[in-house]
Write a structure and sequence with these properties.
Blueprint lengths: L1 H27 L2 H30 L10 E7 L13 H10 L3 E16 L7 E8 L3 H5 L5 E2 L14 E4 L1 H6 L10 E4 L2 E8 L7 E2 L7 E2 L2 E4 L15 E6 L5 H20 L5 E6 H6 L3 H32 L1 H9 L4 H35 L1
Parallel strand pairs: 3-10, 5-7
Antiparallel strand pairs: 1-11, 1-12, 2-3, 2-6, 2-11, 4-7, 5-10, 6-7, 8-9
């Protein structure tokens, strides 16, 4: 009985190999059909992989900073004072956040300007850069150490301090990757700045903005005013804060709101100014999240359409082979055997197209991840 079972299994195995061989020969005789089907699957699955990678990397993956969930931007809501629900902060507000203690561990003031004209060396052409102006503590707050030199310290910030800069690793590479640039003078909008450090590769910071799109930084310059010096009405800073690890969003909102109430009483006679926090990633993705969700849904629909189209193509091909199938039935082939041949054909095309689509998608994912 055991021998009979082994013989039956062997017959099934060799029968399947025979069916696969016949299916491959059938496909070889239809190169146009095979080529169009594989090209459709490759392009479609490759596009799906690109869409999925984009959505996953932007919406799902955490920000590349230690304990990124504890980072928040803080904004002003002027309430009845004026119609501005998302406003920047003056230095006095940020100084108050720093002094609050408790939930808020640190707060950093950021400014930015686009279109800074930067040059280094007599032989280098000037280039346009996006420069973030910041007080000390930004890189410590983000958990990053310089690859060369140092970052801003307390002595670099404040009135009458020398102009200094920290370069991103990408900008440093564009300038020739010269380690000697640390300590050298560069020009920013015609004003000399001393380079004090270079950030590590892979570090990429995007500064949120109250009045425009987020801005990616090419370099950083030191803030040359004291945070408590400007008028409380001069709200031209972005505030980035780190809170105590694991603090709930509700507790963060309550702590920031308490600072806002004190500011409102002191500077606006209780007319309704509020401060509120937004998580770093949520703040940056606020405007693009709906578009990315639609893009992800479109990717799923694309994959479903590919499967439906493949099934339709196989059904159409089966109808074109009606005469061949009728002959097979006349020669004793069962309905199951005929259906199995069609399914094998679709399976082979699906495996081949899926493999090519995976290769195309992996290439796209690698380029996206750079």
């Amino acid at each position: 009985m055991g021998m009979t079972a082994r013989n039956t299994n062997s017959e099934r195995f060799f029968g399947t190999l025979h069916d696969v061989s016949l299916t491959i020969r059938r496909l070889v005789r239809a190169p146009l059909f095979v080529g169009v089907t594989l090209a459709t699957l490759t392009i479609g699955l490759g596009m799906f992989a690109v869409v999925y990678t984009a959505v996953e990397k932007v919406l799902v993956e955490p920000m590349p900073y230690p304990d990124a969930g504890d980072l928040y931007y803080v904004w002003r809501d002027y309430g009845a004072i004026r119609d501005q629900a998302r406003g920047g902060l003056p230095g006095t507000d940020i100084a108050d956040l720093r002094a609050a203690g408790g939930v808020v561990e640190s707060a950093v003031a950021l400014q930015a300007f686009l279109g800074g004209v930067f040059s280094y060396g007599e032989d280098e052409d000037p280039m346009e850069l996006s420069v973030v102006v910041t007080a000390s503590g930004l890189f410590e707050l983000l958990g990053v150490e310089p690859a060369l030199g140092r970052v801003f310290g307390p002595d670099d910030v404040g009135p009458e301090r020398p102009f200094t800069m920290v370069l991103t690793h990408e900008l440093w590479n564009r300038l020739g990757a010269d380690p000697g640039i640390v300590g050298a003078d560069v020009s920013l909008n015609g004003r000399p700045h001393t380079v004090i450090g270079v950030l590590p590769p892979g570090f990429d910071f995007v500064r949120a903005d109250a009045n425009g799109p987020p801005q990616r930084a090419d370099a950083y310059a030191n803030l040359r005013v004291g945070l408590s010096d400007p008028s409380p009405n001069l709200a031209d800073y972005t505030a980035l804060v780190r809170v105590r690890r694991g603090t709930s969003p509700e507790a963060v909102a309550a702590a920031v709101d308490a600072v806002g109430r004190a500011v409102d009483e002191r500077d606006f006679d209780g007319r309704g100014l509020k401060l509120y926090p937004v998580g770093l990633k949520a703040d940056l993705l606020d405007e693009v999240r709906p578009a990315l969700l639609v893009l992800g849904a479109a990717g799923v629909v694309l994959a479903l359409m590919l499967m439906v189209n493949l099934a339709s193509v196989l059904i159409a091909r089966a109808s074109q082979r009606a005469h061949e199938l009728a002959v097979s039935r006349a020669l004793g082939a069962s309905q199951f055997m005929v259906a199995r041949g069609t399914l094998l054909e679709g399976g082979l095309l699906g495996v081949a197209g899926g493999g090519l689509g995976a290769l195309a998608g992996s290439g796209a994912r690698a380029r996206w991840s750079r």
